[in-house]
Specification:
The complex is a heterodimer of chains A (about 100) and B (about 400). Chain A contains no helices and eight strands. The longest helix of chain B is centred in the middle third of the chain and has 16 residues. Classes of the chains: A mainly beta (about 100), B alpha/beta (about 400).
Chain lengths: ~100, ~400
């Protein structure tokens, strides 16, 4: 994840300027992969045939501060609650892209 | 010193809706032009009197130069001509701009006309493509968010933070339908109950099918002019007393807050200009693409405290005869939702109400109203305060 060398804040999604202080000294930094569910929904009608419903769409507040959208995988959808702790996993999206998804801790 | 406030300087002098619902074979351009001509006639004007035109692009008939194409179709030759795009927020945002254009002399008489054919003009695959066009292409879309899902994230957060219930969201759909039942123009008029909403198919928890707005064809237009010129028109002018916008994010994952939106700033700015308070509004038309938006807007616009939207709705306030009738035409939930033009009908309805021409659904004696629209996922907000008296 991007981190500002000036104010040390993390940001997501990546951009050319720091969203906190406007600085341009941004470096890639390893993060914990841990976070908390900010909100979620169980999508019962998928967006296309490629997405088999039901699936769980989540907003994750990452330990480092930023929020990101993701999928919650390998869970009972009906047991998901706001505030639950999660950690990252990676799912292959194509032959050369892996997507960060999350699992309940 | 130059008075920069728009308060009372501009009025709506003509309004018109097309038929709405399922209208196969009608193009957005045809419907937009029909609405424009009817609104001009409602104002008692000729199309040659129009020197400003504002439109919104149509999903079912996209054009690079939409306003120019509309002017050409109408054979009018305006000096102010613009197509704007801010999703569902386009409507009142462009009216804010058009009013400013009149106040600064860019135009004397502006038509704002919008129409789309989301129900009959799009193929199923095109409709899904429209839906997939929302969200960040790299960091949101790959996870499969649907439009209802984005709003479900807001609803779920409100439930977790304030204990809001599905029944309370459902009560908003029930109120809109109760208004629509009194409106012969509405697409859906059969009364529904909270149980009906909860028993309808789950789309994205906690949103059921009946928590979601309609998909419709249709269009509407208004004519705006200066307060001075408005005094000579065939209908009593409906004045723009306040206008305010708030813009907080584009992507829901970048929202400052899920349960407080920039409707708060939009409302504060509009009320400040108008010199009135939420309690002075006789009714309100609030953007209702999904039921939770109305609940958040009631709080953010100051009609109740933050976190108390559920109880406010449950009290019946929004219903016909309630303390704050909301979406008196039926809203996007029950009147129609032809995409970005959707909230134009909330505005034309407000004018019908303030003129006293709303028939069986008339809010008796109403003099002031607030209309609000938002685009994106609670991203682009505009609130307008309307009234029957300029001062």
């Amino acid at each position: 994840m991007q981190r500002c060398e000036g104010c040390m804040a993390y940001q997501f999604y990546p951009r050319t300027i720091c969203s906190h202080c406007g600085g341009q000294g941004l470096v890639w930094s390893k993060v914990s992969g841990r976070g908390r569910i900010k909100s979620f929904t169980i999508v019962r009608r998928g967006i296309s045939r490629a997405y088999e419903a039901p699936y769980v769409l989540v907003l994750i507040d990452l330990e480092e501060g930023p929020c990101m959208m993701s999928s919650l995988v390998e869970c009972d959808p009906d047991s998901v609650v706001v505030g639950a702790l999660v950690s990252v996993a990676f799912q292959s999206w194509s032959s050369d892209i892996e997507m960060p998804v999350f699992k309940l801790v | 010193m130059l008075d920069k406030s728009l308060r009372g300087k501009v009025a709506i002098v003509g309004v018109a809706d097309t038929e709405v619902g399922v209208l196969p074979g009608r193009t957005p351009m045809e419907m937009g032009v029909e609405a424009a001509l009817a609104a001009i006639a409602d104002a008692g004007l000729e199309k040659g009197d129009i020197d400003g035109l504002a439109t919104c692009n149509a999903m079912a008939q996209p054009m690079m130069y939409h306003a120019e194409a509309t002017a050409e179709y109408l054979q009018i030759f305006p000096r102010y001509c613009i197509a704007a795009g801010a999703g569902g927020g386009t409507t009142f945002s462009i009216i804010h701009h058009a009013a400013s254009a009149i106040a600064t002399g860019m135009a004397d008489v502006v038509v704002v006309a919008m129409a789309d054919a989301m129900r009959s003009g799009l193929t199923r695959d095109q409709a899904m493509m429209v839906q997939a066009s929302t969200g960040h292409p790299e960091f949101e879309q790959p996870y499969g968010p649907t439009v209802p899902a984005y709003y479900a994230l807001i609803a779920q957060a409100h439930m977790a933070e304030f204990g809001t219930t599905q029944e309370q969201f459902a009560a908003i759909a029930v109120a809109c339908r109760a208004h629509a039942a009194r409106n012969p123009a509405a697409q859906m008029r059969d009364l529904i109950s909270v149980e009906d909403v909860l028993e309808s198919r789950m789309i994205a928890d906690p949103l059921h099918l009946l928590d979601c707005s309609l998909v419709s064809d249709g269009g509407a237009a208004i004519v705006l002019t200066s307060a001075e010129r408005a005094a000579d028109m065939q209908h009593a002018p409906i004045y723009l007393l306040g206008a305010g916008e708030g813009h907080s994010h584009e992507h829901i994952s970048a929202a400052r807050n899920l349960t407080t939106s920039a409707a708060k700033e939009a409302g504060q700015r509009a009320f400040e200009m108008s010199g009135m308070r939420p309690a002075d509004m006789d009714f309100a038309q609030l953007y209702d693409c999904f039921t939770p938006t109305v609940l958040v807007e009631l709080e953010d616009l100051g009609f109740c405290e933050k976190g108390e939207g559920g109880a406010f709705v449950e009290s019946g306030a929004l219903m016909p005869g309630g303390s704050l009738p909301v979406n008196t035409h039926g809203g996007l939930l029950s009147h129609s939702h032809p995409g970005n033009p959707g909230s134009m009908f909330a505005l034309t309805e407000s004018v019908f109400q303030l003129r006293g021409d709303a028939g069986a659904r008339q809010v008796v004696g109403s003099k002031n109203a607030l209309v609000h629209a938002q685009g994106g996922i609670m991203s682009s907000h505009t609130a307008l305060v309307l009234g029957t008296e300029a001062s």
